[in-house]
Amino acid sequence: MTLEPNAIARNDNWSELYQLGENYRQQQQWQNAVIALERAVELKDDFFWSWHNLGDVYRQLQQWQKAVHAYRQATQLDPQFFWSWHNLGDVYRQLQQCEKAVHAYRQATQLDPQFFWSWHNLGDVYRQLQQWHNAISSYLQGIYLDPQHQLSYQKLGTAFKQEELEPVIQHYRQLSRQPPQGSIFQLYRAQPAKLIDLLDSLTQQHQTQAAIAVAYMVLEIQPVNTDVLSKLNQLLTQQQQLEQTIAKHQQQLDSSTSPLLTQAIAKPTTTKKRSLPGQIVLQSNRAIDLKQLNNLCLAVGWSNRPLNRLKKAIDHSLCYVAAWHIYREQQQLVGFARAITDGVFQATLLDIAVHPEFQGQGIGKAIVKSLLKQLNAAGVADITLYASPHMTDFYHRLGFVAQPHNLQWMLFSNSNKPET
Predict the structure, then answer these.
(1) Cβ–Cβ under 8 Å, residues 253 and 362
(2) What is the pLDDT of residue 410?
(3) Which of 88, 149, 180, 203 qualifies as a FRET site for 62, CA 20 to 30 Å off?
(4) How far is it, in rounded angstroms, from Cα 266 to Cα 262?
(5) Cβ atoms of residues 116 and 146 within 8 Å
(6) pLDDT at residue 361 greater than cutoff 90
(7) Are 374 and 284 in contact (CB under 8 A)?
(8) Is 216 a catalytic residue?
């Protein structure tokens, strides 16, 4: 059945209008669905499904405030329907109203504690609020329900890294020793095999600090588990080596005569002089010489790129950063990277290149950090890149983590702490 908007406005049969709106919704004819459902709630404002489905349609249209109103009406009419609460939490997340999102998701998890995404999304909101222990508990609950979602392990690892290792170990050993009634820690204590699986997954994903904490949790339950003791010893060794590497790297940076690059968004900034005469300047989103960019690609071993296609690639990028070596009146492009994104959730860093003659001077680090800053300002949460295996340590130090079974794909999350 299809009616023109004027016919819908004249129709006084709310049930018929509701069914019409539902048909439009299933056909993804969102605008028509809105017209029919709005008329249905106008005629009868106490029918739960009209409000809930109207909220779904507003959500599809990204009309967030209207979606909030519809879902709130739905939760008042039927406070026991968890989908309304979960969807309301999603909409509050879009509006960056984190405290309200927490309330909605917690209502959803109480009504249906078996739904993975409510726990996962609740963890994301707690992470935005920097309530790290609550985020950890939420991610643990989600992983317990569905251990197949790899991104949860990465976010869990990030949350574990927000404090020094020693207090983290003490806190979670205590929770494992005396878990609160009805908590996820009580579930894991009753099923240590799941905790060991979690330990293995975190280890595979190089989430060392989280894996160490979980290993101690296991040992609170199974103190003579020799396999876990052996894994813990390896993890502690890795952590010590990582800390030593970071400290050594920082010491080298502090004492190096290489220029410490600064980022330039509004205008270029210069660095201290380096061994070669001249200076390095970073510029963001300024006009770029395509011939020099192609020459840079060739210098790092990439194939020749037609200039018209290079221009199209840049035009379709959200942002890009170029590093120039300036000497007298000559400018040479010595570094470049760009980011593509959906503008909301995901972004990928591409074409990260530094001329071989200028590598080892901190240029690549400065370029990547400049792009991350711009993406963070745009509200993009998850940032990926493709890295050659020999470059993974470099990107680890900038806050990226390797993906399981594929060390070339790495993920950066806003709450990761990049190296300073």
Answers:
(1) yes
(2) 59
(3) 149
(4) 12
(5) yes
(6) no
(7) yes
(8) no
Tell me: pLDDT of 258 over 60: no
289 pLDDT above the threshold of 90: no
For residue 285, the tally of other CB atoms under 10 A from its CB is 15
Q: Which of 58, 126, 153, 395 is catalytic?
A: 395
Residue for token digits 């008042």? 76
Q: What is the pLDDT of residue 302?
A: 82
Strands (E), 261-398: 269-270, 279-284, 319-327, 330-341, 346-354, 382-386
Decide if pLDDT at 17 tops 70: yes
Give strand pairing partners of 327.
330
CA 29 to chain centre: 31
Residues 61-119 pLDDT 10s: 999 999 999 999 999 999 999 999 999 999 999 998 999 999 999 999 999 999 999 99
Q: Which of 242, 252, 245, 250 is nearest to 209 (CA)?
A: 242
User: For residue 19, what pLDDT band results from cuts at 50, 70 and 90?
Assistant: very high
Question: Are 299 and 289 within 8 A, CB to CB?
Answer: no
Asked whether the predicted pLDDT for residue 37 surpasses 70, the reply is: yes
**Over residues 139-154, mean pLDDT:** 92
Which residues, 6 or more positions from 377, have their beta carbon under 8 angstroms from its beta carbon? none
DSSP 269-284: EE----SSSSEEEEEE
Residue 329 reports pLDDT greater than 80? no
Taking the C-alpha atoms of residue 283 and residue 210, their distance in angstroms, rounded to an integer, is 37
Task: From 381, 308, 312, select the one nearest 342 (Cα to Cα).
Answer: 381
Pairing state of beta strands 382-386 and 346-354? Answer: parallel
Q: Which of 401, 359, 369 is nearest to 384 (CA)?
A: 401
Across 198-289, the runs of DSSP E, i.e. the strands, are 269-270, 279-284
DSSP 418: -
How distant, in Å, are the alpha carbons of 71, 84, 104, 108 from that of 79? 10, 8, 11, 10
- Number of C-beta neighbours around residue 348 at 10 A: 16
Closest CA to 345 of 302, 310, 380: 380
The pLDDT of residue 244:
66
CB atoms within 10 A of CB 40: 28
Beta carbons within 8 Å of 338's beta carbon, 6+ residues apart: 313, 314, 317, 319, 320, 321, 349, 350, 351, 371
Q: Which residue has the tokens 């680090």?
A: 365
